[in-house]
Recover the amino acids of this structure.
């Protein structure tokens, strides 16, 4: 795998030309006993996940924007080479001397290699775009969704959905529009950009270049008004690192295809009864109305003809469910004109079977 990607032209160009934004590897070796593969790379002080957890309250707004600018700039270079990262999350962002670099491009592929539907999906559920969780292909917009989650993590100090089980139920809710709660711990334009990045429709997410320009604009405006020094972390129980995550919140990249198929089946089974009930209800109502019109006409004609009819009448119970019962009418019509009142009376005998 390492040889395949390191020899792939576009990805090799990313490593060669953008060393300040994308982590480089010096070599590869293997443990003779465990047979584990070992990559040789520069030393970094931390990754973004541990840095935020350890030092959240001491990270200035200035440095948060600096990290984000490095990340999105690196992602823009990757996308410019027509490469999709496919597993972007805070654990894959390395930090050193207040600069951030994107690493772990092992699952990356050329955008032209992706088929309409992915055979194997790999990642961390909260960072995976909803369309990918529905089995559709990775795109550059999928990486932008992941970046939106990193934006949220940086301003809140917690990993997205840290308090939830990372299971099929969470996948279903994300596909249905669930996102982390919006915390007003950043300028409004920052919040708006973050929400654009995690939009449910990938076509409505900005490109990496557009995100970079917007972050630079936010930085420029804040620098003019001195906002980066005035922006302070709001003291709130909803902000800041937590001691422990939910034990079933899994922040290690893993194969998700089986869970995604299970979630898709669950969504279908939940949606079908609702659709069927609505269709049946509409059919019942229309059918009942038609029957009522037919029966009323036939019932009136029986009086005029003086005949005995067998009817099937719809009966509505307390749950608005319509059943049918058969009635046999032996109708004896004795019509006589009232001398005093001027109206006709009809005597009707019912023998109900």
């Amino acid at each position: 795998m390492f040889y395949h990607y390191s020899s792939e032209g576009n990805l090799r160009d990313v490593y060669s030309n953008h060393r300040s934004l994308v982590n480089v590897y010096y070599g590869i070796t293997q443990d003779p006993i465990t047979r584990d593969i070992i990559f040789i790379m520069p030393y970094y002080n931390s990754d973004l996940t541990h840095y935020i957890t350890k030092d959240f309250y001491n990270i200035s707004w200035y440095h948060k924007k600096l990290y984000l600018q490095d990340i999105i700039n690196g992602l823009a270079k990757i996308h410019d080479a027509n490469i999709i990262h496919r597993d972007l999350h805070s654990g894959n962002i390395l930090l050193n001397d207040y600069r951030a670099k994107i690493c772990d491009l092992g699952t990356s592929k050329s955008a032209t290699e992706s088929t309409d539907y992915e055979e194997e999906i790999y990642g961390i559920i909260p960072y995976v775009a909803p369309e990918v969780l529905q089995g559709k292909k990775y795109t550059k917009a999928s990486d932008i969704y992941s970046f939106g989650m990193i934006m949220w993590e940086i301003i809140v100090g917690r990993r997205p959905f840290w308090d939830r089980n990372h299971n099929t139920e969470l996948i279903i809710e994300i596909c249905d529009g669930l996102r982390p709660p919006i915390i007003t711990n950043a300028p409004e334009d920052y919040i708006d950009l973050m929400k654009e990045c995690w939009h449910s429709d990938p076509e409505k997410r900005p490109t990496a270049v557009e995100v970079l320009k917007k972050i630079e604009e936010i930085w420029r405006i804040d620098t003019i008004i001195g906002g980066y020094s005035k922006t302070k972390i709001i003291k709130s129980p909803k902000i800041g690192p937590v001691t422990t995550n939910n034990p079933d919140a899994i922040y290690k990249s893993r194969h998700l295809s089986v869970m995604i198929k299970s979630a898709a089946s669950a969504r279908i089974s939940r949606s079908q009864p609702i659709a069927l009930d609505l269709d049946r209800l509409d059919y019942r109502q229309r059918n009942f109305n038609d029957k009522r019109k037919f029966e009323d006409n036939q019932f009136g004609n029986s009086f005029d003809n003086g005949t005995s009819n067998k009817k099937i009448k719809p009966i509505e119970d307390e749950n608005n469910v319509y059943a049918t019962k058969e009635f046999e009418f032996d109708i004896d019509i004795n019509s006589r004109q009232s001398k005093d009142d001027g109206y006709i009376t009809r005597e009707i005998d019912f023998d109900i079977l």
